[in-house]
Amino acid sequence: MVRLEFTLVGIVRSVMTKINEAILHQMILENMKRLPKLSILAAVFGMIQLSLLFRSFIDGYQHPYKDILLISYGIFSILGIVYAIISAYLINQKQTSTYGFIIMSFILFSLSFGLFFSLSHANWMGDITAYSLALLIMSIVFYMPQKVSAVVYILHYLVFFLLVDVVSLSSTFVLTVRINALFVTLFALFINRFLSNQFKLMYEQTLTIQSQANQLRQRNEELRHMAYVDPLTGFMSRQRFAELFQRQLDYNQRYDNESYLLLIDVDDFKRYNDTYGHLFGDDVLIAIANRLSKCLRESDVLGRWGGDEFIILLPSSRQGEVLIVRDKIIEEVTRDPIQIGEINEKVSLSIGVSRIEYSWEYTMEQADKHLYRSKSQNDLPVFPDIQFQ
Description:
Elements: E1 2-4, E2 15-17, H1 21-58, H2 66-93, H3 99-120, H4 122-125, H5 129-141, H6 146-167, H7 171-228, H8 238-255, E3 260-266, H9 269-276, H10 278-293, E4 301-306, E5 309-314, H11 319-334, E6 338-340, E7 343-345, E8 349-355, H12 360-375
Antiparallel strand pairs: 1-2, 3-5, 3-8, 4-5, 6-7
């Protein structure tokens, strides 16, 4: 629920609207974009009318409201410029708190001027041209909630209804003008309600589309996260690791760079699951992954290959550096037992090392071969250089 408060001759105090606050705010923003242009047009119109009146009075034209008309058109022109400056400034500064007041004051002033101009010319003009134009222009240009437009237009019609009898002595003319003014007022209400409802519907559809797009984007991010991140350890998934490997391989081939891959297997991991259960085994994998991450550089990439296997990418590394990292991993992971609850278990690792070259299949084949060679021995062998070529 949004409360719109504005005052006109102490009659209208507040209007409650059952319109979504976001839609109302957007209505005001759209109105604010149009206000500077319409204000300039109003000022130009006032100046033209003022010059025409001056010319007609110089030529001897007489009118009982001569001074009032001149002053009114002068005020209308000045206020048009003022509204244009203020609204342009507010738009530039994005001061949304005063948008509603500026727009409502402009609408009320414009409608009041149309009402005044029609009444002041009633004796010789015989129609409600200015009153009609003011209502129709406000209805078409500005979006207003239904209750707001109803209060504003009906209030102006009531004022017009009462005053037209004061400025005219012909009862037939008064009745005709009142009927015509009522028709124009209802027509303006219909137009404003139609356009505002269309805008509301369009903006609600926009909000719905934006909401669906945000949900879709969020879902895509979740799916990407699920595809790229191992849900157990929080490190890189197999799919994402394969993508980064291909990038590294292309980089190595283009710039003759040297990089290595480590394939790590937890020895006798099945025993943990069989003895303590799979939840314990999961905790062991998480603990090992955290210890592995402590051994790596910021540029190195750790991923879970699947089951009890981890994989590490060491970009831009030399053979000697890789062997140091391998030994550091063995020391960090196997030095202290892993404690989960009251259970302490020592772990051991087998590591296959391969230089990244030729293709993904070739590199993994070499890493697997070295991994199984490592598992077949009690201690990790010191690989001869030929294994890294």
